[in-house]
Amino acid sequence: MKNNVSRRLIILLTTLLISYSMLWADDGKISGYFIGDYYHMLSSHDENLEGRNGFQYHRIYFQCDCKIKENDNSPNDLAVRLRFEMNGDSLPEKGDKIKPCVKNGYLKWKNSDWNTDVLLGLSGTLVLANTEKFWGDRALSKTPEDLHKFVSSTDFGIAIKGSLADKPINYHVMLVNGSGTKADADSDKKSVFSACLKTGWWFADRVLCRRRNRR
Question: Residues of the chain with pLDDT > 90: what percent?
Fold first, then answer.
């Protein structure tokens, strides 16, 4: 009973913080996109799928971002992100509706002097962040970790991430429920730490791309 009350208080506090931040935001942005295609199964080991064709959605995203700047001379920034995802099964056996869920919902504090971000709420996990950037073709296919459900792409809790040594070293620390986008069903928590060293051609390529974009 006490655990349930504590969880509800935490969720309520996070919701109030996000709502308060969105109301007082100076800069807001609403965006979204979808990934879909037309398919035709010319041949298949499953006779029920052979010859099947149609239009389908893979993913639909709807996102709201709000930024709050304390003042022009301050290195501190506050931001809120609320992101919904709707996805459907590929080649479903029956015509189910597309399932919506909250993909991200967090309050972020950023300090530019320390190169540090603190996130409270449902945010992206550290395992997929670097692999998806390296893969670069998320619109075509998931990474192996995401495809085979080794880890969840998002989780609820607190996260601290940033960079050191003029940004070639990145770190990411999380204390989360460990249940992804699902409701937390126990009192266990997951703690994860990751560090990434960007050297050689990968880091040089990223720096060159950023300079070209600025021009």
Answer: 14
